[in-house]
Amino acid sequence: MFTGIIEEIGKIKGIKKGENSSVLTIEAKNVLDGTIIGDSISVNGVCLTVTDLLSTTFQVDVMAETLNRSNIGQLIPGQELNLERALTMEKRLGGHIVSGHIDGTGTIQNYREDDNTVWVTIATSPDLLRYVIEKGSIAIDGISLTVAGVDESSFEVAIIPHTAEKTILLKKEVGDTVNLEYDMIGKYVEKLLGFVNPSNPTKS
């Protein structure tokens, strides 16, 4: 589990592509402190397991499911990444509970400056937007953010200077893809409300 509070901006050092998978070598510093092989690190919001570790880099395996659901497959050497180590019981939950399991992707539609804030509009599909509510939480490339507005085709978030400095979101261009993870509470509620007991299929 993660908080969505990005600890460091890392960089892709190398990519080894398999037929339906990849091995990423990521350059980092802060997130390596205390990390051991087998630990989880959020990479652009994707929970990945550390498989190899050196003084300035770590490696992760990326399976086909992750490549299909996220923007990880679009990464190139030299590209920057949002990184966060897994949550510990001693750490303040400054964002919201983030699992690192991506629901889908969105596309940056527009940037709009407003004094010290940058408003970002992100378009995504209706089947994913049903989980987005105004003032609710969402993780964008692993960043815990609050939804400021939502319509039938997109939603909007506001980026303060600190978030702009500590993450890669505003370094992306209009049309770029971002990873999206919605608040898991809504998905659990939907599942429970739609559940039909096979032994008693009658609905109220």
Molecular structure report:
Its EC number is 2.5.1.9. The protein has 204 residues and is mainly beta. The chain folds into two domains: 8-85, Elongation Factor Tu (Ef-tu), domain 3, CATH 2.40.30.20; 104-190, Elongation Factor Tu (Ef-tu), domain 3 (Beta Barrel). It contains four helices and twelve strands. A six-stranded antiparallel β-barrel has the order 1-2-5-4-3-6. Strands 7-8-11-10-9-12 form a six-stranded antiparallel beta barrel. Strand 1 (8-17) and strand 2 form a beta hairpin. The radius of gyration is 18 Å and the shape is globular.
Write the layout of secondary structure elements.
Layout: E1 8-17, E2 22-27, E3 40-43, E4 46-53, E5 57-62, H1 64-69, E6 80-85, E7 104-114, E8 117-123, H2 126-129, E9 137-140, E10 143-150, E11 154-159, H3 161-166, E12 177-182, H4 184-193
Antiparallel strand pairs: 1-2, 1-6, 2-5, 3-4, 3-6, 4-5, 7-8, 7-12, 8-11, 9-10, 9-12, 10-11
Pathway: Cofactor biosynthesis; riboflavin biosynthesis; riboflavin from 2-hydroxy-3-oxobutyl phosphate and 5-amino-6-(D-ribitylamino)uracil: step 2/2
Keywords: Repeat, Riboflavin biosynthesis, Transferase
Subunit structure: Homotrimer.
